[in-house]
Amino acid sequence: MALIDRFFDRAVKRGELTLIRPDGSTRTFGSPDAVLKPVTIRLSKGAEGRIVRDPALGAAETYMDGSLTIEQGDILDLLDLVTSNNAWEKSNAALNPSALSLAAGKVAHWLGRKNMARKSKQNVAHHYDLSARLYDLFLDADRQYSCAYYTDPANSLEQAQADKKAHIVAKLAIQPGMRVLDIGCGWGGMALYIHQKTGAEVLGITLSEEQLKIARERAEAAGVADKVKFELIDYRALTGQFDRIVSVGMFEHVGTPQYRTFFTKCRELMTPEGVMLLHTIGRHQLAALG
Description:
The protein is an alpha/beta fold. It has helices at 3-11, 47-53, 55-65, 75-85, 99-114, 117-128, 132-136, 157-172, 189-198, 209-221, 259-269, and strands at residues 15-20, 26-31, 39-43, 68-72, 179-183, 201-206, 228-232, 242-248, 270-279. The protein has two domains: 3-96, Nonspecific Lipid-transfer Protein, Chain A, CATH 3.30.1050; 132-279, Rossmann fold (3-Layer(aba) Sandwich), CATH 3.40.50.150. β1 (15-20) and β2 form a beta hairpin.
């Protein structure tokens, strides 16, 4: 039995997945399910090995480059089928990378997470110095690139992001005349909102030249460029004192080895009565990745 057959035998129990191999032969895995639509995929030469070595990443990349095409159903049907059989929170081993891929990935992850200052700007540029049109496709109008705050599941993304900003500002208890630092300011939305709602002076810092350009343009357009400023600088190189520090969605990029450096620097930048709010995301570490 081919490795890809063994993989799909383990990965698909509910619902039907039909595989068309490069030689035209087919096999169906799983069993009919009233909730899950049947899906048929066709794999080009080389795609099977990529999926077996690292199922989640391999399937995504082969779909992107056309090595995996969907003959019946669509991409959402395929995702529903796979995730229904392999819930992430159950840490199902069927979608985990092979031992070799896992070992290589752990080394690359460790090296990447060191994130020394000389590498940080390159990392940020790779992710954020892209066309603004890309982010306009999936972000709200204010380009809030972090978790929204849904007080009601029926709310729009725009409303949930506005509620997130309001929630953060309320927690910080910012007063007029205070100086606020926004670490990882993105396209400037949070900094501009803070000044608009509190009158505080805000400095937003980023390592993305594209974000810096747009943030400064927004401050100029709002007529507050003298009160809301943006700089291209690493947080480690910043000096000064701030009454409040906020960092939303940036901590994920800091890297575990730099956590102590990050918090030590933030304490250095705060006034004695200063307050900091850190908004970040995390996950339970899978046993296989420990």
